[in-house]
Amino acid sequence: MKVHDLYPAEGAHKRKKRVGRGIAAGQGKTAGRGTKGQGARQGPEVRPYFEGGQLPLVRKIPFARGVGFFNPYHVEFLPVNLAQLAERFEPGAVVSPETLAAVGLIKSETDLVVVLGQGELDRPLTIRVHRVSASAQAKVEAAGGTVELLPWQRGGFRTR
Q1: CATH class given for the domain over 78-159
Q2: Alpha-carbon Rg of the chain, whole angstroms?
Q3: Are 39 and 28 contacting, i.e. CB atoms less than 8 angstroms apart?
Q4: Which residues are paired to 128 by β-bridges?
Q5: What residues form DSSP beta bridges with 127?
Q6: DSSP letter for each residue of 15-67
Q7: Nearest Cα to 91, choosing from 57, 140, 23, 149?
Q8: How sure is the predictor about 155, in pLDDT bands with cuts at 50, 70 and 90?
Q9: Cα 53 from Cα 101, distance rounded (Å)
Q10: Domain spans of the chain?
Q11: Which of these, 129, 134, 93, 92, lies nearest to 113 by C-alpha position?
């Protein structure tokens, strides 16, 4: 094979469309740009997010969200009630984020957990979580159990 034997594949080369060369050429008069308006003019094209001068969507979004102020320091605790603990744990068991994740009450052992006082507790449990409501703590201690608070972080600052 020699260089003069090489040729492009069938259909690989198309002729350039020559616009604005008269009505017989098929792209005469407006040269495929339609009539009037910004797109018909010469010069650089319009930016993809340009909306003709009205307030662009990307600038409207913070107001359109409708949720108000977003607090970047908000900390989400997963609630667990005493009634759920009474169903799933034996007397004397240790309740921690690891054991809660193992029994399926929370998704991950790295989640922050708060124990709430809904329901009754009839067995002594050792509860090691990040937060406990006052009513839950009173019920746990009345049943003979203990409560230990685990340290947790908010925005890089260690609390407790």
Answers
A1: alpha beta
A2: 34
A3: no
A4: 148
A5: 95, 147
A6: PPP--SS-GGGSS-TTTTS-SSSGGGSSSSPPPTT--TTSPPHHHHHHHHT--
A7: 140
A8: low
A9: 53
A10: 78-159
A11: 129
Residue 19 scores a pLDDT above 70: yes
Is residue 121 within 8 A of residue 143, CB to CB? The reply is yes
What is the rounded CA–CA span in Å between residue 40 and residue 27? 14
pLDDT digits (tens, 9 = 90+) for 35-92: 898 888 888 888 888 898 898 888 887 766 666 666 777 888 999 999 999 999 999 9
> 55: which DSSP letter?
P
The tens digit of pLDDT for each residue in 115-151 reads: 999 999 999 999 999 999 999 999 999 999 999 999 9
What is the Cα–Cα distance from 145 to 120, expressed in whole angstroms?
13
Q: For residue 72, what are its two tokens?
A: 């970047």
Q: 138: which DSSP letter?
A: H
Whole-model pTM: value is 0.56
Handedness of CA 84, 88, 91, 94 (dihedral sign): negative
